[in-house]
Amino acid sequence: MTNSIEKDRVVIFDTTLRDGEQSPGATMTHDEKLEIAGLLDDMGVDIIEAGFPIASEGDFRAVSEIAAQAVNSRICGLARANIADIDRCWDAIKHAEKNRIHTFIGTSPLHRAIPNLTKDEMADKIHETVTHARNLCENVQWSPMDATRTEWDYLCRVVEIAIKAGASTINIPDTVGYTAPVESADLIKRLIETVPGADDVIFATHCHNDLGMATANSLAAVAGGARQIECTINGLGERAGNTALEEVVMALKVRNDIMPWHTNIDTRKIMHISRRVATVSGFNVQFNKAIVGKNAFAHESGIHQDGMLKNPENFEIMRPEDVGLSGTSLPLGKHSGRAALRDKLNHLGYEVGDNQLKDVFIRFKELADRKKEVFDDDIIALMHSGENAE
Ligand code: KIV
Ligand code: ZN
């Protein structure tokens, strides 16, 4: 690879501010975008896709200012396959110390029908637009949108054209989340084996989550040879969203034994940015969402709480501190047992003997049957009233 990164490293390309913001209703203000870009830069994201400069005056301004403020990350703007889009994109990103033009066109039969281009006409357009982008910017990414539903021979042909025209990253989008993990790995592997010049570029994977397979597909693509994952915080994105950054990054960290690739992400910054993106986009994170959901490190049942108190590894495969949490949570509810109640009482400053614990536990269970969650104040009230404290 001339465009080389270390063989065992995966580049993280975050598109929260572009594909993520395309979620209906997820629009962010100018200042919010700048704040999120700063957090992405700070957590070690390699490339930030900051927006779609030709889409609006506001997008142009946001991408330009993100380009000017970036410290470590490369700043990328999106452009359709036409000269005006590419020029506008370049104007927005040209002040960044490290920049990238990302240009794309839909190559599947369905998507070719939208601009009504023949295969040959589209091939010429790809050559012309990638060449133009490359003349402006030394770092160009090209995407055949809906690649996973594009005919194999045509996909190879257009990827080769884009490489010859100067693209240094070839992104293979699963635009409609249609692919399965085995296909995802196989597609990248075969492209690298087949297309002339493929060894000189980085292949990227860009997955959508329509069938809930975006994370699995992205990791499979890496196993097939991709070295860039495109993703968003909290999996924000069109329809069912994009690959979630926190999921692929933590999967690579926790299962490095079978997926021996690393990223530059400081995982301890994950929880903070997840909460900020949820707040500014207005998209709450589901409670049971992997890594960043409220319950991802919470244990309510007695057996699990007892196991956690004895050894956290009994029920947790990663340390909460590694994603930026202060610790595990053992919420008290009707499934909780004596060990968790005693632990909570100790944390609240009460030393109880076995008889007192027995008594409080009975009243705690009565209360828990009536309440979804029993809070610290409820426990304190139980201790003092000697009767239920709802
Ligand atoms: O999903 C998609 O195909 C895209 C392209 C613009 C890369 O977001
Ligand atoms: Zn997308």
Automatic annotation (TrEMBL):
Cofactor(s) this protein cannot do without: Mn(2+)
Catalytic activity, as annotated: 3-methyl-2-oxobutanoate + acetyl-CoA + H2O = (2S)-2-isopropylmalate + CoA + H(+)
UniProt GO molecular function: 2-isopropylmalate synthase activity
Binding site for Mn(2+): D19, H206, H208, N242
Annotated EC: 2.3.3.13
Keywords tagged on the record: Acyltransferase, Amino-acid biosynthesis, Branched-chain amino acid biosynthesis, Cytoplasm, Leucine biosynthesis, Manganese, Metal-binding, Transferase
Record domain Pyruvate carboxyltransferase: where: 10-271
Coiled coil (UniProt feature): none
Keyword Amino-acid biosynthesis in record: yes
Pathway linked to the protein: Amino-acid biosynthesis; L-leucine biosynthesis; L-leucine from 3-methyl-2-oxobutanoate: step 1/4
Self-association state and partner proteins as the record states: Homodimer.
Function: Catalyzes the condensation of the acetyl group of acetyl-CoA with 3-methyl-2-oxobutanoate (2-ketoisovalerate) to form 3-carboxy-3-hydroxy-4-methylpentanoate (2-isopropylmalate).
Family designation: Belongs to the alpha-IPM synthase/homocitrate synthase family. LeuA type 1 subfamily.
Protein name: 2-isopropylmalate synthase
Organism name: Aliisedimentitalea scapharcae
Lineage start: Bacteria, Pseudomonadati, Pseudomonadota, Alphaproteobacteria, Rhodobacterales
Gene from which the chain derives: leuA
Range within the parent protein: 1 to 390 of 524
